[in-house]
Amino acid sequence: MRMKLIVSILLICLVFFLGSAQAQIGDNSCKPMKFLNATPDAFECMKKKLQDYGIEVPPGNSGELSGKGITGSFEWDGKSYLTITITKKPFLVSCDTADRELIKFVDECKGL
Prior knowledge:
TATA-Binding Protein; elongated
């Protein structure tokens, strides 16, 4: 009887976890991140680093990024204003975590 109770509790937890994961998959985008002072050199640095990491980046000043389970869009004004939006990410990665990593990445190239 005790074993049935333990198995039942584990099953309920598993169903709850899978249900939570499915709910998060539906809305998996993050708020746009806006960066100032993204110079032409910094913008090219970012594109190259992303490509070296295995993220596909189209030519030009706007488009869709994709690779390694992440999809996003970017738009650069050609001078200094860059917007990046993550539109799809692994459900175990929060938007806060993704934003922090994106800020660190952009800061590496802005120092040029």
